[in-house]
Amino acid sequence: MRLDPRSLVLIAGRELWGLLRAPALWVILALSEGVVAWVFLQTLERFTALDAPRRVAGLTLELTLNVFGIAAVALLFAVPVLGIKGLSEEFRSGAWRLWGSAPVTPLAVLLGKYLALLVPVATLTALPLGMALTLLPLVALDLGTLGTASLGLFLAGALFAAIGLGVSAHTAQPALAAAGSYAILLALSVVGQAGAVVRSHGEGVFEWLAWNEHFLPFLTGLVRSQDVVYFLLGIGLALLLAKRRLARRIGS
Amino acid sequence: MTIETVLEAEDLTRHFGTRLAVDGIHFRLSRGEVLGLLGANGAGKTTCLDMLGGVLGSTRGRVWVCGLDLDEVPEAAKRRLGYLPEQPPLYPEMRVGEYLTFAARLRGLGRYQAVPAVAAAMARCGLGGMERRRLGQLSKGYRQRVGIAQAIVHTPALVILDEPTSGLDPLQSAEFIGLIQTLAQSAGVIFSTHRLAEASALCHRVLILQGGRLAGEWLAGSPEGLASAFATAQTPPEAIT
C-alpha cells in the first residue's frame, strides 16, 4: 500500500494540535512531572545521605534505575489515555468518516496518529533526562548510561503508544479501549514473574515477553539488539493489527 | 452533448454478520442530476451512502466514481467525491476555518489552493464571518453547514449527503434545498431523506429502498406522485391484486 508523506504530515499535525488542545495531555504532563521530580529528589537525598563506602551504585545508575524507572511507569499509565483519543473516540463521534471518505490510506491515518502520539512520549522521556542533566555542573554523570536509559524509555513509551492505538482501533468504546490497553500492558508487565514460577518448563519465553525485562538493560547502560528488536516487533505488531482493523472498517 | 456519469453502483451489497443491510443495488448518476434515496428507518440508506462515500466496504458489488473503481483506486476515486455523513464528522476543538482548510488539504488541495477554496465553500454554505468559531460551540444548523462545506470544499464531481436536512428548522431546510440545487449545476448529487416533499421538490429521480432492496423508482415529472410511488413500493407484492 502506498504511503503519501504529505497526508501523513497533515494527519500527524492535526492530531498533535488536537492533543495539545486537550486538557488531558497537560494534566498528564503535570502529574508525571510531579511524580518524576519527587522521585528524583528522593533519590538525590538518599544518595547524598549515604557515606561513600555504603553506596552500592554510582549516582547515574541510581538516577536511571529510580527516576527513569518511575518515568516508564508514568508513561505506561499516561500514553494509553492519549491513544484512545486517536481512534476510539473518533469511531464513537463519527469524526472518522472525514478521513474514511478522504483520499488517504488507513496506513497514513494510523501512522499520522502514531507520530503525533510520539511527541508526548518524547516530552515525557525528556523529563527525567532534563532533571539528571541539571546536575552536570555539580557532578560527573555517565552520559552514555543516561543516553541508553532515555532510548529505552522512549522505546517503551513508543510500545505503549502503539498498544494504546492498536486497542483503540478495535472498539468504539473509549472506556473499553482504556481497559483493554491497561490489561495488555499489565499482562506484559507481570508475565516475567510467571517465568520464575514455571522456569523448569519453558525457560525464557515469559521473560522475553515482559517489556520490563527488556527495559532494565537500557537503564544499566546496555543496548542489546534483542531488546531493541523486542520493542520494534511489539510496535510493528500492534500497528499492523490496528491497520488491518482500520482497513476492514473503512473497506479499502 | 454527452452525459457524464459521475457515479455507478453495480450489485451493491452489504452484510452485517447474518443481517443483509443492502441487497444488490444498481444505479447510475450523471453530472447535473439530483438523485434522492427515500426509505423508512432501517431501509439501508445510510449503509448504501457509506459504501458510496468509501467509508464502508461492500460485501459484494462495485462502485465507480467518475469511472474510477472505488476498490481498485480508492484515493483517486475519493478525490472526486465529497461526503456528508448523517453525523457531520467534526472535531469540536477545531475552528471552522482551520477545520475546512484541513479538510481541503486532506482531499489533495495545496496550501495556496485551499485558501480560496475554503472561502468559496464558506460563502456557499452561509458561513461568512465564522472562521474563528469553535466547532464544538456551533448550533446544529451551523454544524450541518460546516459538514456540507467540508464535502464541497474541493469542488467534487459527486456530492453525497446523508439526511442533510435532518434536525433543521424549515428556514434552514429551505436554504439547504437552494444549496443542493446550486451544487447540482456542477456536480452529481445524491442524498437521503425521509421527507417526501423535499425529495419531490429537489430530485430528478428518487430511488425507494425497502429492507435494503431497491423497491421502486420515481422520475420527476411522471404522472404518478412520489407519495403514491412510495406507498406502492412499501406494499408487499402479495398485497397487490
Structural account:
Chain A has 252 residues and is mainly alpha-helical. Chain A is 80% helix and 0% strand. Chain A contains eleven helices and no strands. Chain A has helices spanning 5-21, 23-49, 59-86, 88-93, 96-100, 106-133, 143-168, 174-197, 205-209, 211-219, 225-250. The termini of chain A are close together. The mean pLDDT of chain A is 89. By secondary structure, chain B is an alpha/beta fold. Helices cover 34% and strands 27% of the residues of chain B. Chain B has helices spanning 45-52, 74-78, 96-106, 111-124, 140-152, 170-183, 196-202, 226-234; strands spanning 5-16, 19-30, 34-39, 60-65, 68-69, 81-84, 158-162, 188-193, 205-210, 213-219. In chain B, helix 3 (96-106) packs across helix 4 (111-124). The longest helix of chain B is centred in the middle third of the chain and has 14 residues, at 111-124. The radius of gyration of chain B is 18 Å and the shape is globular. Chain B starts with a strand and ends in a 7-residue tail after the last helix. The relative contact order of chain B is 0.18. The model of chain B has no long low-confidence stretch (mean pLDDT 88). The A-B interface holds A 2, 4, 7, 10-11, 14, 17-18, 21-22, 93-105, 248-252 and B 50-51, 53-58, 71, 74-79, 81-83, 85-91, 93-94, 102-103, 105-108, 150.
